[in-house]
Amino acid sequence: MDFDELLPHIGEFGRYQKLIIWFVLFPAVFPCGFHAYNQLFMARVPEHWCRLPSIPNVHEEVIKNFSIPIETSLDNKSRFSDCLMYDLPYDSLSSDRLDRANLTKTNVEAVTCKNGWTFLVEETRDSIVSEWNLVCTKSFSPTLALILFGCSGLVGNYIFGYVQDSLGRKPAFFIYLIVQCLFGVATALADSFPVWVLMRIGVGFTVPAILGTPYVLAVELVGPKERAMVTVLINVAYSVSLVGLALVVYAVRSWRWMALATAAPFLALFLTWPVLPESPRWLLAQGRVTEARAILEKIASVYVGLSYYAPALEGDEYLNFFLAGAVELPTYFFLWPAMERLGRRWTLCVSMVVGGSSCLATFLVQNNYVITLALYCVGKMGISSAFVVLPLMASELYPTVVRGLGMSLSSVVGMLGPIFIPLVNYLGSDMLTLPLIVMGALLVIGGVCSLLLPETLNEHLPQTLDDAEKTKLDFCVCCVPPRKGECGPRKNDGRV
Question: How far apart, in whole angstroms, are the C-alpha atoms of residue 117 and residue 135?
Fold first, then answer.
């Protein structure tokens, strides 16, 4: 049975589909960005320097000025050293000897911090870095945690692709949800860095998978003409999630309470169990016709979807992350009609090339924070658009019998980014624009290569592997963008 040929008779986007998408699937997507990015703020690195002994009648800032060496970064900016201090005889220093110590400082050896570190933790804002001294010789620890977080998502996404195709979309989603909630809450209770990393690995195991199921369900519930719309709306919900996360992490300054605050919305999603339907496409592919018919009857009586980087920019890290999420929202006003008019392939290509070129251009203005931030936002808009189009194309190319696995495999490749980008950010700590240059080059290359993909505009979703094999790769990179309505549905081959 071709589900897309059946939908026009019962409703391609009727009231039932709208209610499920608006009041179940969209709320299910909303908190997904919380666990994907809250680690950036839990592991933020506050300004720090070697903890110094106190000297009677001398202000701490004065002691710091003559005790901490000044270093120059690769972008010619001077700052106090994070990890070195002058080995001065602090026990014998007093206020009347400070000038002499200051004059002879050049002859004093600079040594590593002897008494720990002082962290500039304003108000009650803290992080795992300041709590467990993850700086200097341990400065790679937060980056390693991000890499392990990404690796766990890669493995989990691959595994849960099988779960989604074997058990169904609905059971898989709630399995992900249980794992997310358990490890998300346990993160706040971690008493050491190794335990915290273990909990974050548990969270990361289902982060990409828990977003994939509402997306697949939304695409499989509607007809071909509505897939672009629901894809855009799902991604709007995800962008709102990022904006919401920026507000949460700004308001909640303790990393433990932040972990709890970002895990709480997932608990509310268990309330959707009674109303969340199974995918009728998946049920039909599994031969479970009776259950599919029950869902189809519900549809027919009511007839008719670059962030590791934002906190690293200069300026206020919370404002940067807020802008990184908010800047995605305007893209959706032109993205939906673009996908319907230009098709999936050309929209993807233009989005990636424009976004990548903006990122590359930051190299020319790397000393201007405002222009760098503006170019970053344009780049974020480009990659956000690609993030909408690419999963939609993938879902339209994979057949129903392996769509969950196929989407998971695609996400596994995409998860290589969260694994390697923290390394690029870490290596580029002395050159702010290096991560943008790397990501920009990859975007431009990917945008050009996307023209090799076949156009899927207005095509029926393939049900079986045989259906999918009828769609051939298009190696004509100079093809003319399709006009709306030009790519019609596949001809009926006699199946009922």
Answer: 9
Residue 1: CB atoms within 10 A of its CB come to 13
Quickly tell me which residue has 């969209």 as its tokens.
26
Tokens of 392: 């939609």
Gap between the Cα atoms of 141 and 422, Å rounded: 11
Distance CA 369, CA 364 (A): 12
Q: Which residues pair with 293 in a beta bridge?
A: none
Query: What is the distance between the alpha carbons of residues 28 and 210, in angstroms, rounded to a whole number?
Result: 9
Instruction: Provide the H-helix boundaries in 287-368.
Output: 289-301, 317-326, 331-341, 344-361
Say if CB 380 and CB 327 are below 8 A apart.
yes
Three-state SS letters, 407-462: HHHHHHHHCHHHHHHHHHHHHCCCCCCHHHHHHHHHHHHHHHHHHHCCCCCCCCCC
- DSSP assigned state of 175: H
Q: Which of 258, 245, 243 is nearest to 128 (CA)?
A: 258
Spatial CA neighbour of 130 closest among 231, 42, 190, 62: 42
DSSP string for 255-298: HHHHHHHHHHHHHHGGGGTTTPPPPHHHHHHTT-HHHHHHHHHH
What residues contact residue 275 under an 8 Å CB cut-off, 6+ apart?
20, 24
**pLDDT per residue of the chain (496 residues) written in tens, 0 to 9:** 566 666 666 667 777 777 788 888 888 887 888 888 888 889 888 888 888 887 777 777 878 887 888 887 666 777 888 888 888 777 776 666 665 555 556 567 888 888 888 888 665 568 899 889 999 888 889 989 988 998 888 888 878 878 888 888 888 889 989 999 999 999 999 999 999 999 999 998 888 788 878 888 888 888 777 887 888 888 788 888 888 888 888 888 889 999 999 999 888 888 888 888 888 777 777 777 777 666 665 554 733 225 555 555 556 666 766 766 676 777 777 777 788 788 888 888 888 888 888 878 877 776 676 777 777 778 777 877 887 787 788 778 778 777 777 777 676 666 666 666 677 666 656 566 677 777 788 888 888 877 777 777 777 777 777 777 776 665 554 555 555 544 444 443 333 2
